[in-house]
Write a structure and sequence with these properties.
Blueprint: H1 5-13, H2 15-32, E1 39-44, H3 47-50, E2 58-64, E3 80-83, E4 95-101, H4 110-120, E5 121-132, H5 154-163, E6 166-174, H6 183-199, E7 206-213, E8 216-224, E9 227-234, H7 245-248
Helix pairs in contact: 1-2, 2-6
InterPro entries: Methyltransf_11, SAM-dependent_MTases_sf
Keywords: Methyltransferase, Transferase
GO molecular function: methyltransferase activity
Length: 250
Amino acid sequence: MRTDILDIHDFYRSPLGGVARDFIVNRIAAAWGKGTGLKIAGFGYTNPYLEALDEATARFALAPGGQGVIRWPHGKANAACLVREYEWPIADASLDRVLIVHGLEEAPAPQRLMREVWRVLKDDGRVIIVASHRRGLWSVIDTTPFAAGRPYLRRRLEGLLRDSILRPTAWDSALFFPPVSGKLLVRVAKTWERAGAMLWPGLGGVVMVEAEKDMLTPVGLASRAGVRAIRPAIAAPQPLRHQSRRDNHT
């Protein structure tokens, strides 16, 4: 069961949500700028973040059916729609970038979601995932959408990406200040964020990763004249394996 769209929308209309959005947008802008010339889709609840990528050729906000959707952008032709978790109405290899915020933590099958990302990205496409960090306060204080679903550690997120033939290229963190509303906290959040990034970089409220589509990867071993050699081939997602009981509880 996903968090209701109205709860997420109301969070981003609050002072705390606005500050959180600004810190995360700064990290996204460092990687993608304003999205100049790019075709970008966001999955989860990405409306406030897509706003900053205003030089993109095209922007789409894809909302999972269990969450709900809000018309976006305001005052322009609607570019937001409900989609099935793993069946997006987007052609193969047609997007330059995919942004995921509030989309991974509550996904019933994260690997299937990542394979859908792989499918829609161009050969040189990239994805940025913003996920709640298991060691951060934002995943344990139940006052924001970042406390919903399954938080992630870097190693687990990296494994998920590699299993989906996506290669991590850059890591970052954000939201080092506690998720507590209040005028004073919001005013000092910038100072707190700067100090947290320097003093305890592993304790951010969200972990962020940029990954690229991996088109060439070893997919098997060939034996010839008694010699084992890796035979590279164009990558394609492999059939899902049943998770072990241990995996289901990590």
